[in-house]
Design brief:
With about 70 residues, this protein is of the alpha+beta class. It has 3 helices and 2 strands.
Length: about 70
């Protein structure tokens, strides 16, 4: 099942988060979702073991996306 994390404190400047957010459908509404690079920065800053594991997976996703866009 999908999980939605709600941030109570912003770990990065709000303007950066908003500028690089993506709009995703959640049921019948569209919500801003943090961009992958900003998510990586937040995971890196948190530094917990689970965040570092997530960070590795996010890096693989970015690499795969890069290959999709560059050949």
């Amino acid at each position: 099942d999908p999980v939605v994390d709600v941030l109570l404190e912003l770990p990065l400047p709000a303007g950066r988060l908003w500028k690089h957010s993506e709009r995703k459908r959640l049921g019948r509404i569209r919500v801003p979702v943090v961009g992958i690079r900003e998510l990586m920065a937040m995971k890196r800053a948190a530094g917990r073991d689970v965040d570092l594991l997530d960070l590795r997976m996010l890096q693989r996703i970015c690499e795969a996306r890069g290959r999709e866009h560059h050949g």
